[in-house]
Design a protein that fits this description.
37% helix; alpha/beta; ten-stranded mixed β-sheet
């Protein structure tokens, strides 16, 4: 029987299409592996305005910069010091800085006065509360804010959030900062030394609990904290931006050496992570993510940062939430 004739293989149209599809898939996977086709990590440079030297804002800024270097290696973060909240708000609003931390009352006042760039301000996260602290020597005759009349009192720099709150607390107690006390414009880096040396009779400080400078002072020098909680209602009558103060209690273990097992009534105000509508949404989303994800790491050194909570971080009143921050919160919403 003669051998069958040689048959040439002719692929069908279906087989050809299937083979082409497989080839395209393989090629696509190869491109995905070799080329950075996904969304790039934000890069470039940003400026973060912090606060007074050795203060909580400065420490937080340094720790956040380290976290951002880990999460966003292409982003160059520059830190710049400031006098505090008011200074910070003004810098960001006018484009001198891209991000900052500021207390809600300072932000609200900046908006209320319709200062340059106020309408461009946006919030990224509610961070932690600052507690108002009035520190005096343990044997001081000062028992209430009204007792500060005629005394030398450190109230922070002119552009600080401390001075803003101190001015209002004094008003609520019936005192004028410029005429009824002797105001001393120094920051937390020098307040403890000035109190120990007798250069001042008291100092106001607004910061997270515990503030290291106050804690160390209480270990070296006998001090106590004056209660301020009874002034909250009077504060609320001073104007719209004063509504951001709430009654609060410093727990007895905040400064054990100063409080001697006693909780102290005071007032608190929220700190916000602030930027403007000029900031790229992808960058803002990434920075907000790092802020929330780094809570525990930063909290080991800035104890107040442990209170950053995803459930409340979205409430940045009086600021509207930045679109990039909104994207982040939507992405992690349960």
């Amino acid at each position: 029987m003669p051998p069958a004739p040689f048959q040439t293989f002719r692929p069908t149209r279906r087989r050809a299409l299937t083979g082409s599809a497989i080839g395209l898939v393989v090629f696509g996977l190869l491109l995905w592996w070799l080329l950075p086709l996904g969304e790039r990590s934000p890069s470039g440079s940003v400026t973060f305005s912090t606060g007074a030297r050795t203060g909580v804002y400065e420490k937080y800024g340094n720790l956040l910069k380290t976290a951002l270097a880990r999460d966003l290696p292409g982003l160059d973060v520059s830190l710049t010091g400031s006098e505090g909240s008011w200074d910070n708000v003004e810098r960001v609003a006018t484009g001198k800085a891209d991000f900052t931390i500021a207390a809600a009352d300072a932000v609200a006042k900046y908006q209320f006065q319709d200062r340059p760039g106020a309408l461009r301000l946006r919030g990224c996260a509610r961070l932690y509360d600052d507690y108002m602290q009035l520190v005096v020597p343990r044997d001081s005759p000062v028992k209430t804010v009204a007792d500060l009349r005629g005394k030398r009192v450190a109230v922070g720099g002119r552009a600080s959030g401390v001075r803003l709150i101190a001015d209002r607390v004094l008003q609520a107690a019936g005192l004028d900062l410029d005429t009824d006390i002797k105001p001393v414009g120094i920051g937390i880096d020098t307040m403890p030394r000035a109190l120990k040396s007798g250069e001042i009779d008291a100092f106001f400080w607004s910061g997270g609990l515990p503030t290291n400078h106050v804690r160390e002072l209480s270990k070296e020098f006998p001090v106590r904290l004056v209660e301020l909680g009874d002034l909250v209602e009077k504060l609320h009558r001073l104007g719209e931006s004063s509504r951001y103060y709430r009654a609060a209690v410093m727990p007895a273990d905040a400064y054990p050496a100063a409080q001697r097992g006693k909780a102290v009534s005071t007032l608190a105000v929220a700190n916000l992570l602030v930027t403007t509508d000029r900031t790229d949404p992808a960058l803002t989303e990434a920075v907000t993510r790092t802020v929330i994800d780094s809570r525990d790491h930063i909290g080991t050194e800035v104890h107040a940062a442990q209170l950053v909570d995803l459930r409340t971080a979205v409430y940045t009143d009086p600021l509207a939430l930045h679109e990039g921050a909104r994207r982040y919160y939507r992405s992690v919403k349960p």
